[in-house]
Amino acid sequence: MYGKCGKLEEAHLLFDKAPEKDILTWNALMTGYVSEGQGLAALRLYLQLEHAGIKPDKGTYFRAIRACTAVSALGLGKRIHEAVKEAGFSTEMSIINALVDMYAKCGSLKDAHRVFQESSNKDVVTWSSLISGYAEQSDYDTAVELFQEMQEEGVKPDGIAFLSLLAACAHKGLVIKGLFWLRQMRDHYEITEELQHYDCIVDLLGCRGLFDEAEDLLETIPFQYNVVGWLSLLGSCKTYTNLKVAKRCFDIINGVDTDHTTSYVLLSSVYTKAGMYREAEELEISRRDKELWKKTGQAYIEVDNHIHCFSADDETHPQTAGIHSKLELLNLQAKQQGLLNDGVYLDTIPPVVQQDLFCRHSEKLATVFGLMTVPRDAPIRVAKNLRICTDCHQAIKIISKIEHRDILVKDIDCIHIFSNGSCSCGDRHYQSNSCTNAH
């Protein structure tokens, strides 16, 4: 009960006081942590369970796999996968689906496809998990091929399958194809649109700068209090510096929820992008006066089956001095190579931010730690609990070019694959140039 209510401190206190704990007790607490997005805490609990010699059941493995997904713990996920095989649960549908999803969201589509192919029994969730994996890496063509193959195999798509397909369109900015699949879902497959489907289209329209169409959709869909959709459009306003729509989105959001922190953060970023630094600071002061605190950004990286967690300006890590020194060196190399004067990297960054492009945000610290510890022939995998910010996105592009490394950063939006100075997302939410090709 405490776990499902998000009261994890109370849940853990009760757990610690329990004179006896069976596997259901462990599973209940793990469920709470996974549900609240605290994958690292859930994995620590799983490892504690292992160390205590308690035999996991199918539910334990399922929760542990989901926890690995949250923090992109690919190495630990593979170890749990082997334990699943030894325990005889590898043919269980819920485990198969969790594994496909875990490997896909860790950016290892090869492993996801292997589990998928080895399974003799695939349901719509299995297919949707793999389709979603390709969508998150902006591979629309493969996502559509899998969608069609799924139907050829006699598996009927559901709303989640279409959501994965719409996400593939959104990650590539394919407006016409996105609208086509939305109509197909409703008219051909007779699946009723849900709020998530509409929000995906709003994100797609906003990404392409089609603000009138996005607003019309939000105002006419049969759902009230759609804060997520208006937030998505507000986020798109930063890309195009659309102050008029941004203020309107902000007012609508706060008309529904007067204490919505994210709306303050997003509008402040639009002001900053427009060079309206005084207005941005006034909004930030207003947010702090109302005690609307930002969610703490955290980045995770797994090295030798140990998960390292970083926060902005983190100085708690044992290798902090080396990480900060390496970050300063990268900043110097970027200046020497002229990358900090290159419009390819800086056109989307306000001047006030350009001065500190290599600041100590969590994802930069995790990335630099990866440079120091992950073998050169292996990609660096980082997970972020929020969307990667614009300056970090641009900085990691530069780092990938300087270091000649492939860097994967999974955030709440997609999987960014940085290589040789570019990103697989196509800078969808990080560019100021208007895109006219909506196909």
TrEMBL record:
Work out whether the entry's keyword set contains Aminoacyl-tRNA synthetase. no
Q: Name one Pfam family in it.
A: DYW_deaminase
Kindly give the Gene3D superfamilies that the UniProt entry links to this protein.
Tetratricopeptide repeat domain (1.25.40.10)
* SUPFAM superfamilies found in the cross-reference section: TPR-like
Q: Which organism is it from?
A: Ceratopteris richardii (Triangle waterfern)
On the tree of life, the source organism's domain of life is: Eukaryota
Which NCBIfam families does its entry note? PPR
Q: What are the recorded Gene Ontology BP terms? A: RNA modification
Q: What is this protein called?
A: DYW domain-containing protein
Taxonomic classification: Eukaryota, Viridiplantae, Streptophyta, Embryophyta, Tracheophyta
Keywords assigned by UniProt, alphabetized: Repeat
List the Gene Ontology MF annotations in alphabetical order.
RNA binding; zinc ion binding
Where are PPR repeat segments found? Answer: 22-56, 123-157
Residues in DYW domain copies: 354-427
InterPro entries from the entry? DYW_dom, PPR_At4g14850-like_plant, PPR_rpt, TPR-like_helical_dom_sf
